[in-house]
Each structure stands twice: as structure tokens, then as C-alpha cells.
Amino acid sequence: MGPMEVPSQSPETIKIPTSNYEFGANYIDPQMMLIGRISHEGRLSARLKYDLLDDLTVKANGQLTSEPHMSHVMGTIDYKGSDYRAQFQFGSGALLGANYIQSVTPKLAMGGEIFYAGQHRKSGVGYGARYSHDKMVATGQVASTGMVALSYVHKASEKVSFATEFMYNYMSRDVTASVGYDAIFRQARVRGKIDSNGCATTFLEEKLSPGLGFSLAAELDHSKKDYRFGFGMSLGE
Fold first, then answer.
1. How many CB atoms lie within 10 A of CB 77?
2. Is the entire prediction scored with pTM above 0.90?
3. Quick one: pLDDT at residue 223?
């Protein structure tokens, strides 16, 4: 649920985040993982991951809701070879897709993808490359939809990483750049980023005791004057 706008006497609009409650159940064994969630609004979502073979995995996720055009189902077949990976996707709305990535050298991998959305009569082709070293990972992507994406992740230490991302759409001329961090402590993990639009986000996960976790999240969008804060508790490993 998004924030609720409340009119005020000043020209600015006050946005108050609305609450959301969910009940979830997880089932995990060495071969299968099943996760389900249901919200207080009756929205049901589920994810399934099943290993048919050591190199062949089937994934599925879906959502059922009373809101028009919001229910969907998506399936994925993932195959991992010795030096390549192939994936096929299919879903509601006549969505079909496939991607393939091949290791050219031990540090460089290249690949491509294709998709077709029959409901919206859209199709596209994309190409990508990934270069990894001991303490860095650099990726680049370009697609026929107009999107160009570049990213770089640097591992400063065993527990601290920094990243930067650049996205450009040569059709709409939209440009976004962002920098982020990821820090892991003994019982906590902190992640955050800020982008060129003035939007800053941070997320804290803390393990209070075995089987009990606490999380805090915040998003500050100064350009849109949209501020969101939240917290959560998790039970179980």
C-alpha cells in the first residue's frame, strides 16, 4: 500500500504511510522451497523453487488479488551448464522470454536475451557482459527498448562493499545515477543508496536471537516530498 495523501492549508500535500499486515508460511527442504504470504486485504502471493536435477531448476511465482489486472503467474526453467546458463520464462499476459549467458574466459561472461509480451504487443532484444575480479564486478547491458545500464561493485573488505550504477534510456532521454553500500556486522546488515533524483533509501536487518529478526527501512524522496519509514519482525530461520 502506498502513502495516503491528506490535504492541508499549506500548498504542500502531507503524505501519511498506511499500514500493511501479512501472514506468511515457509516450507524448505534440500530439494524444494515454498513461500506463501496473505495480506489483510486478501492478497495472496506464493513462490516455488524445485530442483528437478542438480543442473535443472523450476521456479514459479504468482499473485491473486481482487484488484483488476493485478493477478499474475510467472514460471521459469533454469539450466546451468559447466560454463553457461540458459533460462526460459513464461507467464500470464502471453509473456515469453529466454536468455543465455556464456563464460568467454574465467573472468568474462557475455550473453543475450529476448522477450515477447503478447498482451501488450511488445518485444525486445538485449545484450549484456559481466567482468569479475577478486574484489570487483562490472556489468553492462543494452536493450532494444532503449535502456543502457552500467554497474560496478567494489569489495572494500570481507564485510563492506560499495557500488555505483548508471542507467540511461536513449529513447526517453532519462538518466539516473546512484551509489550504494552494503555493510555486514556480527549480528546486523546495513544497506543503502542515494540516486541523482535525490531519493535516498536504507535498510537495516538485525538478528536479535536465533530465529528472531528485526528490520528497519526508510525512503526519502526529496524531489517528490515523499517520505516512508517502516519496521518489521521475523520469526524462524
1. 16
2. no
3. 83
Q: Convert the pLDDT of each residue in 95-142 to its tens digit.
A: 999 999 999 999 999 999 999 998 888 899 999 999 999 899 999 999
Handedness of CA 213, 214, 220, 221 (dihedral sign): positive
Residue 81 to residue 73: CA distance in whole angstroms:
27
Please say if the pLDDT value at position 211 is more than 60: yes
What's the CA gap between 100 and 95, in Å, rounded? 17
The residue among 64, 59, 55 whose CA lies nearest residue 75 is 59
Distance of CA 141 to the CA centre of its chain: 16
Cβ neighbours of residue 186 under 8 Å, at least 6 residues apart? none
Which residue, among 197, 161, 158, has the nearest Cα to 180 in the 3D structure? Answer: 161
Distance CA 205, CA 190 (A): 6
Cell of 218: 526508510
What's the pLDDT at 224? 83
Instruction: Quote the cell numbers at residue 121.
Output: 504487443
Partner residues linked to 48 by β-bridges: 34, 60
